[in-house]
Description:
globular, 36% helix, 10 helices, Rossmann fold
Amino acid sequence: MLDLTNVRKTFNAKTVNEKIALDGVNLHLNDGDFVTMIGGNGAGKSTLLNAIAGVWPIDQGSIVIDGTDISRLPEHRRAPLLGRVFQDPMTGTAATMQIEENLALAARRGEKRTLKPGITRAEREKYREQLAALGLGLEDRMTTKVGLLSGGQRQALTLLMATLKKPRLLLLDEHTAALDPRTAEKVLQLSEKIVTENKLMTLMVTHNMRDAIRFGNRLIMMNEGKIILDIAGEEKQRLTVENLMTAFFKASGEEFANDIVGLNLARQARILLHMALMRLGAGYRNQKIA
Length: 290
């Protein structure tokens, strides 16, 4: 399980550039939870993932995984517990190394290195089977350097690497944002397949509200360093983009227009009109937008 208690992080404290990135965040995830996280730019989503991963030391609070307090552990000491896929397809892999070499590095995460042969025949066959499951033909290109792969192929490989040794927590930080829509959908489906089959506790940051609603069993929304919405179960299954926009507006009192991504202009116009009418207050509640 994951427990965050009163987690706080401020950048440039006591200066004119002070920014409160995390403002007393409390979050509990059960084993197997697949949680999507949305919020505006600067809401604290990536900072929260970085705090969990140990990239940024937190100022206050605690981060506990499976009963172990990792709040003060350096990043490399947390690596055996975590898997992560970043937004940039160039991050998370070694571009000048072969596909099978990258997988071998991932398979040895958290272990001591020795002078024995880098990749055994049994390991190579195992990697071939795992690559074949991705359905991208990478099992026939195991000696290809990763830098020659497309963005989607590279993200799929990074996803496999992040879960090769089952992590206690998988962090997906807008891992499809840099991909074209078709490739992004393929990577999302692969993500859901891997998470579901391995019952991985997962936090997935996304700016796409449709994806946030469609994937996972729970949705949280951040604003100004705080979690302002936490929706799960049947309530999440009944969610629509319009309802989510309304919920955000009620919870934060601010517009969320920058995050209406992946929607056609007509739906964007409906949502923005809905928000504008809500500002008018009484008289709108019982009306519908045609």
